[in-house]
């Protein structure tokens, strides 16, 4: 059950005209009162002798009595809607719900003879509208601050008591939704999304690419967006606003949106905090492992960094965890620009969905994620990989990170964010499957071409490293690809058994559709095999024979 309290108005009769009218698309059927302040308010919907003018006059009585002391915008309007899966409530049930919400918000406290005058109108099966005039019997205004939060809290209790579906609640960190006027304007102009939504997507994408606030503004202007920077008298930047070229109001002026009206994390202070906390040296890399004799490309660095996100979310402070989720959102924002054209639709949908998961009431510690953010920004400064292996490895890591973000939010009761992460994971899974099929088939073919003795050696490695899962892995269709990957890792100087142990220790595999496929990509990330894997790489049958080490030999390595 959802409450929507609109901005106060000053025309009681105008609201009544809408509630008792046909609606914008003739959706209003049988408008009538289910309750009122005294139970005797005139009801034009059921009483043929009652008029809208009479009802408006009765509601406005105290407003007239208060005279100039009455608030200019005295009309309080709240709609309460049940979700489609809920049963149809009776008029008496809706009347009780209206009284409870009015009591909770302070508009009409129960038992208060001086409470504001109000009515509850039902003109559809699934919702009611409550209209009140904000002048009490003692001619003072009601104490209704934080009315939305208090109404929402009461609706949570009502859902439980009435056996209704419990709607996921937000934490007031969601981006502002487009208004009805914005939606109708988009429809008139043949746009799939509103100007606010297009500007939000553009700003998020360019912010993920920028290294400084100045560069962010330059990128915005270069994309064709109108930008106006606001400054303090000292000359320091106070904020900014943006508009789409060609999007004008009735006076022919641009329709401006401040950064904070696009999304809470797009305000200038938030942007400055994020970019200032990040070292802009995108070429820095601290990897000195034997597996990386030369500096890896940003795509490889990002894949390795993203692979660590699930474990970091499990073991980091909340502030650091929120920062990792914010950087994951930046990765998703940029991937549609860097990925092949065939993947961009799914990746754009994933980024749009995950946008809601990127914010919560927990303040992000951006200083803890500098290395990952450098790699995110650097992928646009390097050519996209020509083969699909590194992209499949990265998408696999991003998918696992999105699932981990869903779990992280769910355990903290961030219901909207958890659902957003789940939706993003569905789109990422589709993009991953479209990407991974071809490179996985190439690796699979190499596995089927392995000499028998090498294949038996890899089987022994799996049985030794993962005794409880070995039979399942060896029976999966993806086993040849994993066998080829283990052989390649051994040829590159790694201990395959140790890699398997590390790969499985990072997180559980019980929910994986194919354990062998998941391990194939994890080994590629852990051993940096993506730098050595191409579609024409020779199969490892020419590798020299390496006998399986004894337990004593493994302990001395």
Give a verbal description of the structure:
By secondary structure, this protein is of the alpha+beta class. The chain has 3 domains: 2-162, BirA Bifunctional Protein, domain 2 (2-Layer Sandwich); 180-276, no CATH class; 298-555, no CATH class. It is built from 23 helices and 8 strands. It has a 5-stranded antiparallel β-sheet with strand order 1-3-5-4-2, with helices on both faces. A 3-stranded antiparallel β-sheet has the order 6-7-8. Helix 7 (195-209) packs across helix 8. The chain is elongated. The protein starts with a strand and ends with a helix. The model is unreliable at 282-296 and 533-557 (pLDDT under 50).
Note the beta-strand portion.
Answer: 5-15%
Distance between the termini: 62 Å
Low-confidence stretches: 282-296, 533-557
Largest sheet: 5 strands, antiparallel
Please give the radius of gyration in angstroms.
30 Å
Average pLDDT level: 88
Number of H/I helices: 23
- Overall SS class: alpha+beta
Shape: elongated
Strand order of the largest sheet: 1-3-5-4-2
Helical proportion? 40-55%
What's the multimeric state? single chain
Whole-number count of domains: 3
The strand count comes to 8
């Amino acid at each position: 059950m959802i409450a929507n309290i609109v901005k106060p108005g000053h025309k009681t009769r105008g609201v009544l005209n809408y509630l008792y009218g046909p609606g914008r698309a003739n959706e209003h059927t049988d408008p009538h009162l289910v309750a009122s302040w005294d139970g005797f308010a005139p009801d034009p919907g059921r009483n043929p002798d009652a008029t809208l003018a009479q009802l408006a006059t009765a509601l406005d009585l105290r407003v007239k009595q208060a005279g100039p002391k009455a608030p200019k915008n005295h009309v309080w309007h709240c709609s309460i809607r049940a979700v489609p899966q809920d049963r149809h409530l009776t008029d008496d049930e809706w009347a009780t719900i209206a009284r409870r919400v009015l009591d909770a918000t302070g508009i009409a406290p129960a038992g208060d003879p001086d409470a504001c005058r109000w009515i509850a109108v039902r003109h559809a099966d699934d919702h009611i509208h409550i209209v009140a005039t904000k002048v009490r019997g003692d001619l003072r205004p009601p104490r209704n601050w934080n009315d939305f939060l208090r109404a929402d809290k009461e609706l949570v209790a009502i859902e439980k008591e009435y056996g209704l579906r419990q709607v996921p609640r937000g934490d007031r960190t969601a981006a502002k939704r487009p208004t009805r006027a914005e939606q109708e304007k988009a429809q008139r102009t043949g746009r799939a999304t509103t100007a606010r939504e297009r500007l939000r997507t553009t700003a998020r994408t360019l912010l993920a690419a920028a290294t400084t606030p100045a560069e962010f503004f330059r990128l915005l202007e270069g994309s064709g967006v109108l930008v106006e920077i606001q400054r303090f008298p000292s000359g320091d930047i106070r904020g900014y606003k943006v508009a789409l070229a060609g999007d004008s109001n009735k006076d022919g002026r641009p329709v401006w949106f401040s950064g904070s009206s696009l999304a809470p994390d797009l305000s200038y202070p938030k942007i400055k905090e994020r970019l200032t906390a990040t070292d802009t040296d995108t070429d820095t890399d601290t990897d000195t492992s034997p597996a990386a004799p030369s500096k890896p490309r940003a795509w490889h660095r990002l894949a390795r960094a993203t692979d660590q996100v699930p474990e970091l979310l499990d073991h980091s402070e909340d502030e650091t965890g929120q920062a990792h989720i914010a950087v994951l959102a930046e990765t998703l924002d940029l991937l549609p620009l860097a990925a092949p054209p065939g993947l961009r639709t799914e990746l754009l949908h994933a980024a749009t969905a995950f946008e809601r998961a990127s914010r919560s009431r927990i303040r992000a510690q951006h200083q803890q994620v500098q290395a990952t953010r450098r790699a995110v920004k650097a992928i646009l400064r390097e050519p996209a990989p020509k083969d699909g292996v590194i992209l499949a490895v990265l998408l696999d890591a991003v998918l696992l990170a999105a699932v981990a973000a869903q779990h992280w939010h769910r355990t903290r009761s961030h219901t909207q964010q958890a659902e957003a992460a789940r939706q993003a994971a569905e789109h990422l899974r589709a993009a991953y499957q479209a990407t991974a099929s071809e490179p996985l088939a190439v690796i699979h073919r190499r596995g089927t071409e392995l000499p028998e003795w090498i294949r038996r050696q890899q089987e022994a490695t799996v049985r030794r490293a993962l005794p409880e899962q070995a039979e399942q892995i060896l029976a999966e269709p993806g086993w040849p690809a994993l066998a080829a990957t283990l052989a390649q890792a051994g040829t590159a100087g790694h201990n395959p058994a140790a890699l398997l142990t590390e790969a499985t220790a990072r997180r559980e595999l019980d929910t994986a559709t194919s354990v062998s496929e998941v391990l194939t990509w994890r080994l590629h990330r852990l051993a940096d095999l993506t730098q050595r894997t191409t579609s024409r790489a020779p199969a490892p049958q020419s590798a020299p024979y390496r006998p399986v080490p004894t337990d004593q030999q493994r302990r001395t390595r």
